[in-house]
Specification:
Blueprint (H helix, E strand, L loop, with lengths): L7 E9 L3 E6 L2 E9 L15 E6 L9 E7 L5 E3 L5 H11 L9 E9 L4 E8 L5 E9 L1 E3 L2 E4 L5 H15 L3 E8 L6 E4 L5 H13 L2 E9 L4 E7 L7
Parallel strand pairs: 9-12, 11-13, 12-14
Antiparallel strand pairs: 1-2, 1-4, 2-3, 4-5, 5-6, 7-8, 8-9, 10-11, 14-15
């Protein structure tokens, strides 16, 4: 996934009200520039005042906040994509290329397909080589402790509900997959964040026992593009 326009660097002052951030921007030297923050999570380790950030420019004068926060750089030089909306695109490219061999090639790959009794939308749907319906829920991972990544970074009832829906799909004879898109270049393994959301971790264990599959995508992240380059282990034994 390439960024359509060159990202512009700035320095973070603060993130607040979940969807807003103030940055020091060279083109606005006399006052902080308020930009859109497309991340509803806690953003632990991603939003420290003074860190270097990169923004995309909507080039839309009618938009209230012209710029969107895309990337952040940690104090030890790791790069994080904070825009969770990018995860589905990166996941879709990886699925189309068959990057994760365990998932295998999928036919009729479609995004945002309604499924289940309540017709909620799955991030990606396709048919595997055995003609099984395959339902893939994509999650963005940015929380890191050393090289260990965790999801979620805050209590998430919605993420737990997604797992329960995938369990239903597996029980009906289909495939249910959680695909963690690792948006932190320092993360080498992913696990459920039992120390933050123990109910989610418990539900992951139930999902694993039911046959839901868990995979993680390793990404190269630069101000020019985000590219899935391989898989990372998911610590199911810790769920």
């Amino acid at each position: 996934m390439r960024f359509h326009n060159p990202l512009q660097p700035a320095r973070l002052q603060q993130r607040y009200k979940r969807f807003l951030a103030d940055v020091d921007f060279p083109d606005a030297p006399t006052a902080p520039l308020t930009i859109h923050c497309p991340n509803t999570g806690a953003m632990t380790g991603c939003a420290e005042p003074g860190i270097r950030v990169w923004m995309s420019d909507s080039d839309n004068p009618k938009r209230k906040y012209r710029y969107t926060w895309e990337l952040a750089e940690t104090s030890n030089g790791e790069t994080i994509c904070v825009n969770t909306q990018r995860a589905n695109t990166v996941a879709g490219e990886a699925l189309q290329s068959g990057l994760i061999s365990e998932i295998g090639p999928l036919r009729e790959l479609k995004a945002e397909v309604g499924y289940g009794y309540d017709k909620r939308r799955i991030d990606w749907f396709g048919l595997d080589q055995q003609q099984r319906e395959t339902y893939i829920e994509v999650k963005s991972v940015t929380l890191a402790t050393g090289a260990q990544g965790f999801f979620p970074d805050t209590v998430s009832v919605r993420a737990r509900q997604h797992l329960l829906s995938l369990i239903d799909m597996v029980n009906e004879g289909h495939r249910g997959i959680v695909l963690y898109v690792v948006f932190h270049t320092g993360i080498k393994q992913v696990a459920a964040a039992a120390h933050i959301d123990p109910v989610y971790a418990q539900t992951c264990a139930l999902a694993t026992a039911a046959g839901v599959e868990f995979y993680a995508l390793h990404c190269r992240i630069t101000p020019q593009a985000i590219e899935a380059i391989g898989s990372l282990p998911v610590a199911n034994d810790e769920m």
